[in-house]
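During the first year of the project, the team set up a workflow for recording each protein of interest as an amino acid sequence followed immediately by a discrete structure-token representation. This format lets reviewers and collaborators read both layers of information side by side without switching files. As required by the reporting guidelines, we include two representative entries from the current panel. The first entry is reproduced here exactly as it appears in our internal archive.
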Amino acid sequence: MIKNPSRAILIGSLAALLLSTPPLQAQAVAEDPGVKEALHLLDLWIDAQVAYGQIPGAAAAVVHDQELVWAKGYGLANREEGIPVTTGTRFSICSISKLFTIGGLLGKATRELAFQFICL
């Protein structure tokens, strides 16, 4: 079950819009009216999540064809000193590396199964 359907809809819509955009330079993608609107909605949503979701700070980026389209920092990197989050703020990856590990293992297993199936 999806815990936050509005998050899934927003992220899915943004992904669909970016994937449906023909190959262009990142700047051209960012200037597309549909992408601009999607980025604006994403910006508002993340800002609200930081403001009302008890999230001290976050940074977000959108990449298209390995080029940065948009990036922004939200909230504070250090509440005590009032240091804001920027696009260059470094975060601890904590347990996120587990996701990359399992993703890599699943991808490898899938490729091996597909190869075995083709070779039969």
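The second entry, processed by the same pipeline in the following quarter, appears below.
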Amino acid sequence: MPDNEIKELYKTLISLRKEIDSSKKISENKEYQMAEIHNTLLDKLVPEISSREDKFALEIIKREESLTKYKQEQVVFLSTVKTLQKEENASGLYTLLFPDLAQSTQSHFTIEDIINNSKFFYADTIADALRQAKEQVGEYGTIASMPYIIAGKAAASKDNKLWKNWLTALSCEFVGTDKKGKYAKQGESIVITSHNCGFSADRIQEAYNTKAYNTKGGMTDQHTVILTQDEFDAILKGTFPDGTKNIQLYNLDDINKGKIPEPLFGQYAVYLPFEQAKKTKSDYHQKKEFLNNPLVLVRAGTPDHLESYFDKAKHPSKHHVGNWHKFNQIDPTQPQGLVLFVGSDYSGLNSDIDLSDDARFVGVEHRAAKK
């Protein structure tokens, strides 16, 4: 089937879904029409899956293929699509068919999972802790980003383990110069905060292994990973040092308007002008200041959970929560990156941590997620 025909079928399917959602009724005719389109699309998608021996996706299809109701059909369809999205381009299909879906393989997880079904992965170095977490949660598990950790802490009781430990997030900050003026004025420096993507354990290990500071592949005096300009240019195009590609970059306005499709689980990044990020106070904040801090919002990915998080995290008498950074210490013309941390309580959100410090990631295995 030609790609343009597939695209038209997909558009029709989306149109039918919107019509059903708006009317909140499912007519048998519309349901049948949707099921027919869905099955036609899967006929095209299944060979793509089979050719890669993607047993997880095939299991989903086999388990759900007899279901015809709209909501049930939607689950398997989106699950299949999101599995395809893990593969680079999937022969161009997901890029062609699903531009409006968030880049995420983790949407089957919930806030309840990080509260009740998560595990900690601690090691003496960030690289070792990240490697351990990746191995333990498996291909279909999730390691929590800063937005996910904030949401979990906001919903958890203060006696939950999430409030008993500082945590390392699968979120990173990258600083460098936008030489072509893609997201800032040409030649200006920017900060890019990534969630659910960023550094691989091997890329961080490479920085450890380079003994001399301020050399290619090593660390800066502030213990951040030195990047090449090519690496930073690739980030501006949506390709990160851990190998993730086609990552959408958003801005602060997108966060405030709720335009990020899956802020807790999606793979995405948000950019800020470096000078704007630098001007934010690296210190403790009172509530209003914290909730309106541009860097806090970028790190949180959404304002939805911030107030509840602040109220639980705040100092018992001083009523403040921290937000810390290194932007007053670093040279923004040298491309570099670091990993984000969340304090156990009012210490708050932090990137002012040495790359050589220990780490504690939190993750959920796929089989542990609430079904």
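For the second entry, the following points were noted during internal review. The chain has two domains: 3-97, 111-368. The chain has 15 helices and twelve strands. Both points are flagged for discussion at the upcoming steering committee meeting.
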